[in-house]
Design the sequence.
């Protein structure tokens, strides 16, 4: 059977994604009740290639492997041959001879696809310029834990049409909820990704209109990794797109607020938003651990029903 990769949410079927969310919740509850006693990754190794910075992604993947009896290797281009020009396809073939699964955080999504095409072991996208699917597993898990099935509900994306926005659009397709994408003109998500989602996703430019009656509101930084030099221009262009307590007041009374983090207080969110009870970002961050345990388990072992 062909090697399964997880480069976007479209690599798994809706049914498989539902399984993963439920499995992540089971794993989390079991860990809470029994501690880390389950060791399905014994003698398995995850290679983690990071070409961009990370706190949550690195710690959650490394901890997931440790809790489940396996091992994780942190590989940076600064001190591997990747940084000296060894072709990614050669690296993929070499690592597949040694490790069981690979996680990559990189710039080019096409480069990630090229790596995966050459890899005989599963490859996980841990963020590219175009997508961040692992974050969406944790986000949908959090939404499901707190509110039950997300099917037919309404989420609102405020801000840049970036990698996170693209993954929210794919999540709306796969989990069958409505998504309103609200961004400044000129910062819309990619047209092909938007169009493929059909009428589940609508594009707006007025945050107050977008959040009216919403079940969930989410945002992200205005300048992503690699766009640092655009910071000042983006701060000006995104004026009026800050998510504040007052903006959430226009959504449903039980609205939830998510942010993949790291957040910039005073920019895309108000100074105090993360202290508001509607913000569930710490639970969301913690769920990266549980969701990725379920993902790695699925890619290495298939479905598990205990
Ligand atoms: N949300 C997220 O991916 O965080 P890190 O950049 O810290 O990994
Ligand atoms: N859009 C952000 C997400 C960080 C987790 C970035 O790519 O930098």
Sequence:
């Amino acid at each position: 059977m062909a090697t399964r990769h997880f480069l976007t949410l479209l690599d798994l079927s809706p049914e498989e994604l539902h399984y993963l969310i439920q499995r992540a919740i089971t794993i989390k509850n079991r860990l809470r009740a029994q501690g880390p006693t389950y060791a399905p990754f014994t003698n398995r190794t995850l290679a983690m290639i990071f070409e961009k910075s990370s706190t949550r992604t690195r710690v959650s993947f490394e901890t997931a492997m440790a809790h489940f009896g396996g091992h994780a290797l942190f590989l940076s281009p600064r001190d591997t041959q990747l940084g000296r020009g060894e072709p990614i396809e050669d690296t993929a073939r070499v690592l597949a001879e040694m490790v069981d699964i690979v996680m990559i955080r990189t710039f080019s999504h096409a480069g990630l696809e090229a790596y995966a095409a050459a890899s005989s072991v599963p490859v996980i996208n841990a963020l590219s310029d175009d997508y961040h699917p692992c974050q969406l597993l944790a986000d949908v898990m959090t939404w499901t834990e707190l509110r039950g099935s997300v099917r037919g509900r309404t989420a609102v994306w405020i801000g840049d049409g970036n990698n996170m926005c693209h993954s929210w659009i794919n999540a709306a397709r796969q989990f069958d909820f409505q998504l309103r994408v609200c961004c400044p003109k000129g910062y819309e998500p990619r047209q092909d990704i938007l169009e493929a989602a059909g009428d589940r996703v609508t594009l707006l430019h007025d945050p107050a209109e977008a959040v009216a009656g919403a079940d969930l509101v989410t945002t992200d930084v205005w300048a992503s990794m690699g766009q640092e030099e655009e910071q000042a221009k983006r701060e000006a262009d995104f004026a009026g797109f800050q998510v504040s307590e007052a903006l959430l007041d226009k959504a449903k009374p039980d609205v939830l607020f998510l942010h993949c983090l790291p957040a910039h207080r005073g920019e895309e969110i108000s100074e105090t938003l993360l202290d508001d009870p509607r913000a569930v970002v710490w639970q969301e961050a913690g769920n990266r651990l549980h969701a990725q345990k379920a993902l790695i388990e699925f890619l290495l072992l298939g479905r598990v029903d205990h």
In short: The chain has a mean pLDDT of 97. The first helix runs from residue 14 to 34.
